[in-house]
């Protein structure tokens, strides 16, 4: 009986490792798990939904104070007028956004509606309900915000989200909403995801090697955790590692960003899985050591395309593996195949400029070469600050300030200030005002035109503007605004 049971177990094990024969209403589909990406697609799309959700949530909470027509630091209506004056009749093509189709008086409410609709669609995407139409709408909605967000939406991960969102749209069928009923993912889109993560990693690695000397002498991590935009509670502990360990971590950084991308083009699944594990683990470490908005969460998404179903199922429970093997699979959607080929051709054409940029000694960091931001070049931390400067805002009710005046400090949601407070956790949520103050503090000779928003910010504090006060955590003058800042 024991020998018979062993033979049965062995048969089940062989069945689990062999290609699965899956029944559908139309045909019998044989799936080789080494070349199947059902699970990778599900993880990619659900994680994309999470990133979209926090991005639209930040927009819903912050846009009024940042770019609102009545309260914003950089009002969107003035920006749109300047664009129309510059581009004339071609402005809707040069800078596409849904806001061109509404009256100026409706811009603020339209931005709120865009954010709310984006929240709804991204929530359903997280829950496993989406198709090509809803993914395209998410892309259009966020694209409309980015193109009027000005300085506050000038971060590299904005166009990375747009490129990732448009790319992942091609993972979905045109009509079917349920991920469980999707046809097999097109391998071409898997390859384009790998191409995206390769450009992200290589761009970040090359900008470091060509940039700050501390990346070459292996000392950058001695400073990074302390001088990064918004440290979190674990940043201090990462900062305490020995100089030798910090130097080793720089070497690991270079290996992941400059060597692992080439594993993606090898025919060996083991190397591709190793690359995917390296990309994912590296981003998780960055998430643990700082508040870098949704950048690291977003970067994990294309890296998941390194894993096939055989690898991902090896991490799952036996019950889930059995459910996966017995599920119904729809036939391939051949109707969209020609359009996917056209999209691949467009990506290859648009990749020429990013590749040239990667090879250039004067490499640009985080740049787009097409107005729709479909294929971009990326990079991060080409230079690392060695000293942390912090702008602190104080106000006083004294009409004639002197050495005896009482100055009260404004509190921010995550920006370091009060030395008695533990650093916060905000990622993947993006506190855009806090980040911009970090950039402003980096200016070596005071403020420049790029930081003109600070003058607007101070003026809003002097009038207790409610939308701008919503962007900070503590207003020491709740009843009557201060006389001086």
Short descriptors:
single chain, two-stranded antiparallel ribbon, mainly alpha, globular, 20 helices, 485 residues
Description:
By secondary structure, the protein is mainly α. It is 52% helix and 3% strand. The chain contains 20 helices and six strands. The termini are far apart.
Q: How does the SSE layout of this entry go?
A:
Elements lengths: L1 H16 L2 E4 L4 E4 L6 H30 L8 H12 L3 H4 L12 H20 L5 H15 L9 H14 L17 H24 L10 H7 L7 H5 L3 H16 L10 H21 L5 H9 L5 H6 L3 H9 L10 H14 L1 H8 L7 E2 L7 E2 L16 E2 L12 E2 L22 H10 L11 H10 L3 H4 L16
Antiparallel strand pairs: 1-2, 3-4, 5-6
Helix pairs in contact: 2-5, 2-7, 2-13, 5-6, 6-7, 7-13, 8-11, 8-13, 12-13
* Total beta-strand segments: 6
Helix/strand/pairing category = mainly alpha
Distance between the termini: 85 Å
State the helix count: 20
Poorly predicted tracts of residues: 20-30
Overall mean pLDDT score?
91
In what order do the strands lie side by side in the largest sheet? 1-2
Largest sheet: 2 strands, antiparallel
Shape: globular
The Cα radius of gyration reads: 25 Å
**What is the helix content?**
40-55%
